[in-house]
Amino acid sequence: MKLLIVDDEQIERDGLQAILEKNFSNLEIKQAKNGRVAIEMAATFQPDLVFMDIQMPGMTGFEAVEKINADNPYVKFIMITAYATFDYAHLAMRLGVVDYLVKPSRVDEIVETVEKVLGQIETEQKSFEHNKQQQVALQKAMSLFETDVVTQLLFDHVHEVHLDELVELLGMEAAKEKFVMSVLLPLGSEYSYTAIREKVRESGSGWVGALYGRQLPIIVFRSSDQSFRQQATQLAREILTLAKSDDGAGWFIGIGNIYQSLEQIRQSYQESLIATKDTMLPVKYRFYSDLPVLVPGFDEQTTKQHEEQFFEYIRGGQWEDIFSYISDMVDRYEQEGTNLLHAQQRVMELLWLTSRVLSEMGVESDAPFYSFQATDFRQIRAETNHLLERMQDAYDKHHANLEVDIIQKVKQYIIENAHKDISLDAIGREVGLSPIYISKLFKEQLGINYIHFLTECRIEKAKKLMRDPEKSMKEITFEVGYHDPNYFSKVFKKMCHISPTAYRKNLLA
Question: Does residue 410 fall inside a structural domain?
Fold first, then answer.
């Protein structure tokens, strides 16, 4: 503990220091001869406790306390004076002085006062360190929340019990405009993930999702200080500065349109992915709004609906619909007399999107490329069907390799680790599956998402712990895996339709 003695009389300072050194072995003590010197020393010495004489020439002790306190709000002060008056005591209380000694003070009185104040300081320091550890744990949990919220928002695996609380915990206004950027990274560039997350966090502009293969989705919140294109372009350029190679080879960023609600954010994600279809452009980012329509012969709204439907076919493994969709597109091109090379390129873009969405789900297949330039539409149909069959084969093999009891394995892992900060990524690594696919399986087979199941496990454990009257609600919160008692209380009430305090009262009645 660091202690500063401030008094204009040398003999008083030395006498007090001798008493303190004799009775306390854990003090580092320094002296200041007046208030101005004390202010200067406090800035560098950073004392925990200050003995401050009130009556000193040039600057009173109260004036010095006020100035020191402005820069060091955690410092404790014990005032010393030869005059014990009500006005002094009142002013001392207003300044937050913790105690008051009248000259001359007895040795036992000084020792008792210092022991009491040092005890307060030690208790506060322990509490501060505990809170600091909790903040570190909360920040770690927030990172997991962030990636999981992004995954669930973009892939429609959200459950209303949790979305509001998670959004509130992450500090975002739900009404704010938002859009999605999809960052494509070169293979083996996983090291860039942390750097990109830090870059986005520094800008305070969005949430970063999990890295799926080469793809990294970012939900970006609109800034009122810039236009949409200015904001998106600036963030894209900042992210591209992280590319290790001079030309940014393998890096590309697609930028979706702005939407108001969280429910619409999936559309912006799909648009951002479509915008990455041509990565050979000299500029390594592209806005979806700058692309020609993907489906010919439709207005913009109808085109968006068709694009969204095509994504759903792929994610649902509806191969008959995928074949039919692309076949109809080729027929339309042929009927309209579209240039053959242009038609082949457009169909190639759809095949590329199919491959990219399959990759999200953990299905690895060869990149689809035409081995020749078609001379008629019959060749486009034949080669397109061949490439689609290869992708379907990869999809079928992926599902065939999945064990029947995979959901049971995932459930068991969650049950055993519910008290920890677990995420879709962690579960995916445990069972060897894509986080998106795990979330999809939960939604399809159980009708809930994994966070709902995780919450049920935690709430059930909390109910058991509440039977022990010795455990505080705060202890229970941390023991079941939450870092914020208020958040735990909200989730408990939403799940059980009663507050945890009321539930416990009924339980122990």
Answer: yes
